[in-house]
Sequence to fold (401 residues):
Amino acid sequence: MKTTVLLGITGGIAAYKTPALVRLLVKSDLHVNVIATKSALNFVAPQALATVSTGSIYTDMWANLLKPSIEHIELADSADVAVIAPATANIIAKFAVGIADDLLSTTLVALRCRVLVCPSMNVNMWRNSVVQRNIESLRQAGHHVLTPESGFLACGWTGEGRMPEPEIIATAVVKLLNPPDLKGLRILVTAGPTEEPFDAVRFITNRSSGKMGLAIAQRAQARGADVILVAGPLRVSPPGDLPIVPVRTALEMRHAVMDRFPETDVVIKAAAVADFRPETVSSGKVKKEGMDPIVRLVRNPDILEELGRTKKPKQILVGFAAETDNASANAHKKLVAKNLDLLVLNDVSQVGAGFDSDTNIVRFLYPNDADEQLEIMSKDAVADQILNRVLAIRSARFSNE
Ligand code: PMT
Fold:
């Protein structure tokens, strides 16, 4: 079952941005139920929310009188996290003192999960001492408040009061859902293909999009790790707050990884590194008339194998194997040859696995010959499973000391 976000929308102009927020939450693999107050519906159409949401849009406490269930309790119980965006002075006041006079405010009283409040109002309303007192009460009750941004406000005033952009709210929601269980760990992830040029315009590469490695880096960062992503040319856009070392060739990737390896606790190599590169590279574009139709290749260094030879006892090494035939036997050879703590095997001939797909089907192989087959799942979910295994390997290793 998917993690569920309950989004409460109240009657501020910023409500028009909430379909974008819902889309971002859904993109993060979250199920979203929405409660929009009567006032909110002046600024956002329920049809727009229903189109982008995976859950239902609730607007009225009394809409479903003949239903046997009690809607506000069901909504509160099913929420793993709740967010109120935009939060008007009115809902902030009601939530702070426990007034329950409509579906949203009544549901808020019944919630047991973490709540993120995103105030949005005129600067003078925001500075009002009663509003500030209510905000303080919410914080003291353990709720999270996203401070409004400063800028030009819809009412014509300039100052604090703008609801932060949907991307910022979505990131804050995801953070609330993730306990920082990887805090203190430095994790280096590689992603994407490498490109091996043979002249100024031509190169050899492979089908890796970078989605798998990016998912691992993002999930690790969301769970509190200090992450570096060494990435070949990605076919997906990474978020702006992820530290990335862009590389092109296998030799550049080797340099970037080996440089950082001594300060790293965990390396996860999801990149599809080219095993060979053209022996010679022309600085200009070779004319086809003068071009040798045979390109001579030389072997690239195996970065993971080198890491396996040089790793310190406390460092954890996770490798991937993209296989099509004799998958388990080939993957097992890689696990041993590269001295890995965990090998993630994906049989890339399976539909829904491997290159460019949004999902993956993986099998974990361990040095003690144990293995685990996982179901098809999103690459984000695979990333979390890998990170969970990394934590388990670390705790087993440190408890043996
Ligand atoms: O990027 P996506 O489109 O999301 O696709 C994901 C993926 C299929 C690329 C990913 O899940 C995956 O399987 N990555 C590893 C692909 C690969 O190169 O497998 P391999 O069996 O050739 O290499 C084994 C391991 O050695 C890998 O961890 C690889 O990073 C590493 N290696 C390989 C060659 C080399 N010269 N240096 C290396 O470090």
Summary: The longest helix spans residues 379-399. The mean pLDDT is 95. Residues 101 and 369 are 60 Å apart (CA to CA). Residues 208-212, 250, 269-273, 275, 300, 302-304, 319-322, 334, 346, 348, 354-356 surround PMT (CB under 6 Å).
